[in-house]
Design brief:
The chain is about 50% helix and about 20% strand. The chain has about 450 residues and is an alpha+beta fold. Among the domains are: about 160 residues, Beta-Lactamase (2-Layer Sandwich); about 140 residues, Heat Shock Protein 90. Helix 4 packs across helix 6, helix 6 packs parallel to helix 7 and helix 7 runs antiparallel to helix 8.
C-alpha cells in the first residue's frame, strides 16, 4: 500500500508539520536515553554501595572452631534492624546457611534457597535486580583457610529497590516536564526561524507585485543565494518579455514609416493624371511593395537576432527600384538621384532587409537634401561599402549619435517621426554592420553603410 501524504501548498505549513512530526520522536528518544543513563548511574551507585557492605562484613568476620562467625554489633546498624531494607546472608559451598542478619529474618525462605542457584568461582561477583522481590542482590564468593583446609562461602547482601525507584520516578517526572517545556520552546524557535528564513520569499512576492503595478521594472532586492537563480531567471524572463513588447511596438512604427513611400508614389501618380493602364501598373507595383513590407515587418517582429543563410541579392536592381520610387515621390522638388556601382555587386543577406535599409537612408537624403543625392556602392575587402550623400544642411558632429536614436529628429518642422535611421541601425545590427555619419563632398551629410558582401 502506497503511503499518501496530505497535500500542503504552504512551505511554512509543510516545515511546521514536519517539525511537529519529527520533534516528538527526537524528544522521546532523548527522554528514553536520558532516563536509561540515569538508571544506569543509580544502579552503578547501588552496586558500589552493596560492594562496600560486603567488605564491611568481611572485615568483621572471624573464623573460629571451624566455622565463620559475625559479631552481633556491626558498623552498619541496619543489619540489626528488622525490615530495615538492608539484608546480609552467608552460605557455605553446599548452600547451608552460615549466618543471616536480624534484618533478614522475614525474607521468604524460597528467596534464601534460590541465592546459590548461580555458581560463582572465586573472584567473580554477581549484581542483579530481583524485581519480583523488590531487591538488588550482590554476591561475592570467598575462600577462607582454616584447620588446614579451604572453606568456601558465598556472601549475599540485598537491599530494597524502593529508594532507587522513587528517585528514578522523580527524575522521570522532572525530565518529562523539562523536555515538554523544551519541546514547546523548540516549536516556537522553529516557527521564528521559518518566518525569518522565508522572509525573502515574502519580499520576492512584494517585489513582483511592484512590477505588476508598474512601480519597478525588475527584481533588484538582495536575496539569499538559494533564491538568486530564481530571481535571475525571472529578470531574464521579464527582460525578454519587455524586449518583445518593445519589438512589437517598434514594428508598428516601422510598418507605418515604411508604408509612407508606396502611398506617396500612388498619390503622386494620381496627381500626374497618368493613363489608366500606366496608373494601374503603378498602383499594382506599390501594392505588391506594401504587401512585401507588411510581411517583412511581421517576420522581423518575431525573428531572433542573427541572419539566415541566403543566396544574396544584387545591389543594382534594388537601387533602381528604390530610386525609381523616390524620383516619383520627390518629383516636385526636382531631386536628382545619381547611382554608381560596379556590375554584379551582391549583398550577403535578405533582399527585404536591403530594401528597407536603403529605402530609409535614401528617403532621408531626399527629404533633407536640396536637389542632389548620390549613391555609390563598392566592394571593400569582404565588406560592401555604400555611401549616400546629399547637399542638405548636414548633421553637426555633436548630434550624429543622437540622430540615430529612435524618435530623434534634427528638424522638427519637417514631416516624419524620426524612425527611419533607427530602423536602419536595427537592421545593420542583425548583420554586424555599421552606420556612420560624416560630411559629404556635396556639402550635406554622408551616411556610410558597411555590410557583408558576397
Amino acid at each position: 500500500m502506497r503511503l499518501r501524504w496530505p497535500r500542503v501548498r504552504s512551505l511554512r505549513a509543510r516545515l511546521l508539520v514536519f517539525s511537529c512530526s519529527l520533534l516528538p520522536v527526537v524528544f522521546f528518544s532523548a527522554w528514553f536515553a536520558l532516563q536509561n543513563a540515569f538508571l544506569h548511574s543509580l544502579e552503578t551507585a547501588e552496586r558500589e554501595q552493596l560492594k562496600l557492605q560486603v567488605y564491611l562484613l568481611l572485615g568483621a568476620a572471624e573464623f573460629q572452631d571451624g566455622r565463620l562467625s559475625i559479631p552481633q554489633a556491626l558498623r552498619e546498624p541496619r543489619f540489626g534492624q528488622l525490615e530495615s531494607g538492608l539484608y546480609g546472608v552467608i552460605q557455605s559451598q553446599s548452600g547451608a546457611l552460615q549466618w543471616r542478619s536480624e534484618s533478614s529474618m522475614l525474607l521468604p525462605a524460597g528467596l534464601l534457597l534460590a541465592l546459590d542457584d548461580t555458581p560463582l568461582a572465586p573472584g567473580d561477583v554477581l549484581f542483579a535486580h530481583l524485581p519480583e522481590h523488590g531487591l538488588y542482590l550482590y554476591q561475592y564468593p570467598v575462600v577462607w583457610e582454616g584447620g588446614g583446609r579451604e572453606h568456601h562461602y558465598l556472601i549475599n547482601v540485598l537491599e530494597t529497590d524502593a529508594p532507587l525507584l522513587t528517585e528514578l520516578r522523580t527524575y522521570r517526572n522532572q525530565l518529562v516536564g523539562w523536555l515538554s517545556l523544551l519541546f514547546l520552546l523548540a516549536l516556537l524557535v522553529q516557527y521564528v526561524i521559518l518566518r525569518w528564513s522565508l522572509k525573502p520569499l515574502d519580499g520576492l512576492a512584494r517585489d513582483i507585485k511592484r512590477i505588476e503595478s508598474g512601480e519597478a521594472d525588475a527584481l533588484g532586492g538582495r536575496y539569499p543565494l538559494e533564491v538568486q537563480p530564481v530571481t535571475a531567471n525571472l529578470n531574464l524572463l521579464l527582460d525578454s518579455e519587455r524586449r518583445q513588447r518593445e519589438r512589437y511596438r517598434n514594428t508598428l512604427g516601422d510598418l507605418a514609416h515604411s508604408l509612407k513611400t508606396p502611398l506617396a508614389v500612388i498619390r503622386g501618380s494620381a496627381e500626374e493624371e497618368l493613363p489608366l493602364a500606366e496608373y494601374r501598373s503603378v498602383v499594382d507595383e506599390q501594392v505588391q511593395r506594401m504587401d512585401q513590407i507588411v510581411q517583412y515587418q511581421l517576420a522581423r517582429a518575431v525573428k531572433s537576432q542573427g541572419r539566415a543563410m541566403t543566396a544574396g541579392v544584387e545591389i543594382g536592381p534594388a537601387l533602381q527600384r528604390i530610386t525609381g520610387a523616390l524620383r516619383k515621390v520627390y518629383r516636385d522638388k526636382g531631386t536628382e538621384i545619381e547611382v554608381e556601382h560596379p556590375p554584379g555587386l551582391r549583398f550577403a543577406g535578405d533582399e527585404r532587409d536591403l530594401m528597407e535599409l536603403l529605402g530609409n537612408l535614401l528617403e532621408n537624403a531626399c527629404k533633407y537634401g536640396q536637389r542632389r543625392v548620390q549613391v555609390r556602392a563598392v566592394r571593400d575587402g569582404s565588406d560592401l561599402c555604400i555611401d549616400i550623400d546629399d547637399d542638405g544642411p548636414g548633421v553637426a558632429p555633436e548630434r550624429r549619435d543622437t540622430v540615430l536614436q529612435r524618435g530623434a529628429r534634427l528638424d522638427t518642422s519637417a514631416p516624419g517621426q524620426g524612425i527611419g535611421l533607427a530602423v536602419a541601425v536595427d537592421i545593420l545590427s542583425s548583420y554586424d554592420g555599421e552606420l556612420s555619419i560624416d560630411t559629404s563632398p556635396l556639402g550635406g551629410a554622408r551616411f556610410r553603410v558597411l555590410l557583408p558582401a558576397m
